[in-house]
Amino acid sequence: MFEPVPPYRPSHFRIKFATSDWERAGTAALRRRVFCQEQAVFPGDDADAVDARAIPICALSTLGGEADAVVGTVRIHADTQTPGEWWGSRLAVAADYRRTGALGAGLIHVAVASAHARGCTRFLAHVQDRNVALFEALHWVALDTLDLHGLPHALMQADLTRYPAMADPETGLVTLLRRAGGGGPG
């Protein structure tokens, strides 16, 4: 009798700027899946005017060392009114990978560190209440609370001293599989 084969789980992920067409398409599809279908925050599509100037960042799962799917995303952009101020938004991780603790933290790290390399002196984000603890653990502070799209959010600011400038976000970083709450690969 054969044992059932468990589903494939990548051992590492690459987190980087979405530079290819398939990566950009994958980030847009993941955002629609999370913010439109799962959370019903936006009807149909979450695209907005920020997308025209934002830099999309992707977390890629790997198969045999090669990127095979977009499993996480966030976007960053410089504020057009306040020099040095950057924003992050639309942080999303695919449902099957949300218990992989390294993905959200890795996306946040690449977002802030790459903006820091581009002259960011203040990095902000509107964070859904359910994610505030993650951001606080990553050296962010809540500045205010507000309601956006019918959901409670915190306006949060990153401690830039904890995010050294990342000069090559097109290549990004590799993060190993780690389950949320500790534990090793598996």
Brief synopsis:
With 186 residues, this protein is α+β, with helices and mostly antiparallel strands.
What does this protein look like?
With 186 residues, the chain is an alpha+beta fold. It has a single domain, classed as 3-Layer(aba) Sandwich (Aminopeptidase). 22% of the residues lie in helices and 35% in strands. It contains three helices and eight strands. The protein has an eight-stranded mixed beta sheet with strand order 6-7-5-4-3-2-1-8, with helices on both faces. 32% of the residues are buried.
For the record, what CATH class applies?
Alpha Beta
* Average pLDDT for all residues: 90
Number of domains: 1
List the helices and strands in order. EHEEEHEHEEE
What does the overall shape look like?
Answer: globular
Query: Any idea what the radius of gyration is?
Result: 16 Å
Largest beta-sheet details: 8 strands, mixed
- Kindly estimate the percentage of residues that lie in beta strands according to DSSP: 25-35%
Q: How would you name the CATH homologous superfamily?
A: Gcn5-related N-acetyltransferase (GNAT)
Q: Based on the structure given, which CATH architecture is correct?
A: 3-Layer(aba) Sandwich
Tally of alpha and pi helices: 3
Overall SS class: alpha+beta
Low-pLDDT stretches are: 179-186
Q: Report, as a whole number of angstroms, the end-to-end distance.
A: 23 Å
Order of adjacent strands in the largest pleated sheet:
6-7-5-4-3-2-1-8
CATH topology: Aminopeptidase
Residue share in helices? 10-25%
Number of strands: 8
